[in-house]
Every structure is written in structure tokens, then in C-alpha cells.
Amino acid sequence: MNIASESPVRPPLCDRLGIRHPIFGFSHSVDVCAAIARAGGFPVLGLARELPHEIPHILAEASERMAGLPYGIDLMLPSQVPDEAASIESVRAQLPAPHVAFVDGLRDRFQVKPPQRPSFFTSQVRTRALFDAQIEAVLDSDARGVATAIGLRADLIERAKARGKLTFSLVGSVRHARKALDMGVEVLVAQGYDAGGHTGTVGTLSLLPQVIAEAGEVPVLAAGGIATGAQVLGVLGMGAQGAWLGTLWMGAKENHTPPALLQRLIASGSEDTLITRAHSGKPCRVVRSDWIDAWNEPGAPAPLGMPLQQALTGDVFASMHEFDDARLIYEAAGQSVFGIERETTVGEQMDALVDGMRGAWERMRGWDAHRR
Asked: How far from the centroid of its chain's Cα atoms is residue 149's Cα?
């Protein structure tokens, strides 16, 4: 890793956070986040799919691995979920019979093995009670920032700021940006249609200038479809103070991506991703697999809403990851999947991003010199 390399542009938010590069890396992996921090970026650890009793241990590990370097935590806080659920079994017992029969048919068709390891997807239902427990753990952590997606809670913003944490909100529209600003969010992340995971309907390059205009002096990051240093420099030129990347890190050794999923990501281009409700019940961009395609076949039912769709299919998602099922395995992934060409390391990825920024910067300077 070329740790001496510096970004050609260093927006004010970098100084505010004490990072060298305007690169914000979202990942579910502590190993990835620690490597991003060491390489001079700002890692954001996703905890939305972790078992509640494991979150304090994960945060303790993250704190130790970051070794004093700044990092953030990301939570998913959709509003249209139950206040609480007795158990995932009670939710499953109320699922529509046609949907249960359809998924049972897919289990037989694909010979899905029952998952053996406990996981969020086999045991949890997204509820406000679950979110409350996640929030308490995050507020007690030493994370420098707290980010929220597909939902926002004023009490979290107020309490996080009172603890000295910088607040981020991922927004997919100007309306969402205004709501976040009204709640006092300190950094907006303009997440375009190109992004992996839960996303909106407006592309990154169209959304970004609108959110920047709405934000005024509030810093804005760009998210969605970004995999190269030239793209990072491009969004900085549009007024963003950094780029938020997620998909790219799944190609890093530190992510411990299951082999079949890694090969799917390497083989995929932007057109191999699509937005579906089959994963969670909300629009979510994923890389295609036979499981996702089955939900688009004639006769397939419309996916249920959140959190019912996860209760319906969560054991299958857990199984395909536990057993690395090459036919079925998929993951949330953006159109930036084109940037995963081989397995690499976070350090190599960060070097490539910074070198790409510098190369684009020098290329544009060359154009100006040529005019003279």
C-alpha cells in the first residue's frame, strides 16, 4: 500500500474528521473497515443485519481494530415496521399461504439446505424495539459518526450529536434531503439509483447537484455507481466533499466474501444488477442469481413488504451464504460492480482510487496546459 500517496483534492470534511482521503467506505466487515481506516479513508460499519446480542462485541472489536482512527456506524431505520414482534415464528405463522407455497416450491426446486448457523435473517424481525436496542449500543460506542438509511429518527440525531458524534443520512431524493436537514443532520449522502442496497429512482449524477443545492453549507457525499478514482474526483468537482463506496470492498480479501459470490461479482457488469423487492420487501439493488430471477418469472407473487418478505425468505438467504450456493447466492450490489475485476486487498483498492484521482487531475491539467 502506498501510504505516502495523497489525494489531489482534500475537502474540508476530511480535516473535520481527520482523514487523508475523501473516500468513505461502507462495509459489514470489521476487517474491511479497519483497513480503510489505516489507508486514510473513513470506514462506516454496517450493523443493520447483526444479531442484537452480538453488536456490543462487534463494536468492541471495531474500537480495538481502529486503534483510535475515526470510523462510523450505519443503521437502517425504516418507519413502516411493527413496534415489536413476539417472535419470527409468530410472524411466519401469519404469512399469506400462496407466498409460503411459492417459496416452499423454490426450496424444493433448488434443493435448498436448511441453515445450520444462527443469523439475523433466520431469527430476527425488523421492529422499532430492535432498532432501539441497536441505537443504544451505537450511542455507547466510540464511533465518530452515525449514519442512517431508509429512515430517520429525530431522537437519534439529537442524542448522537449530544454524544459528539457526526450525523449522516443517506437520501435518495431532494424531499428526503430536506427532511434530514430539518432534523439537524450534519452530512448528507446523496445515494443515487446506481447504488447497491436500498435505493431510490434518481441517478447519482442527477441527484447530487440537487441535494448540494438544497444542503447549502451542509457537506454532501456522493454514493452510487462509484468504483474509480476518476469518478471520485468527478463528484468532488460537482461539489461533493467525498465519495461513499460500498460494493467495491466485496472484492477485497478482508471481506471474506464466499467464493461463489466473489466469482459472481467478478463476472458481473453493471447490467447484471437489478432492483428488486424480493430481498427485503423494499426496492433493493442486488446482483442477479437464479433465486432473484425466480421472483421475476411468470406466476411469481409480488414480494411482501418489509419486514414480512425477510420472514418469508430469510432462511433461504442465510442458507445460500452458509453453503455458498453458486446458483442462488446474491448480495446487495451496485452498478459499480464493474470495478471488481479480481480479488484484491483494501490497501490496493485505496491506492487505485487515489492514483485514479491523481491521474484524472493531471489529465485535466494537461488539457489546460495544451490550450496555452
From this structure: 9
Helices (H), 43-96: 55-66, 88-92
Contact 361, 9 (CB under 8 A): yes
pLDDT per position as a tens digit, 124-153: 888 888 888 889 999 999 999 999 998 889
Contact between 240 and 221 under an 8 Å Cβ cutoff? The reply is: yes
Range of the domain at 307: 12-347
| Per-residue burial over 292-327, b = 16 or more CB atoms within 10 Å of its CB, e = otherwise | bebbeeeeeeebbebbbbbbbbbbbbbbbbbbebee
Domain count, the chain: 1
Per-residue pLDDT tens for 5-36? 788 999 999 999 999 999 999 999 999 999 99
| 173 contacts 91 by C-beta, under 8 angstroms | no
CATH code assigned at 306: 3.20.20.70
Of the candidates 210, 41, 177, the one whose C-alpha atom is nearest the C-alpha of residue 169 is 177
Strand partners, 102: none
Q: Can you tell me which residue has the cell 441497536?
A: 134
Length in residues, the chain: 372
> Closest Cα to residue 319, out of 145, 113, 24?
113
365 occurs within a structural domain:
no
Is residue 22 a part of any domain in this protein?
A: yes
On whether residue 17 sits in a domain, the answer given is yes
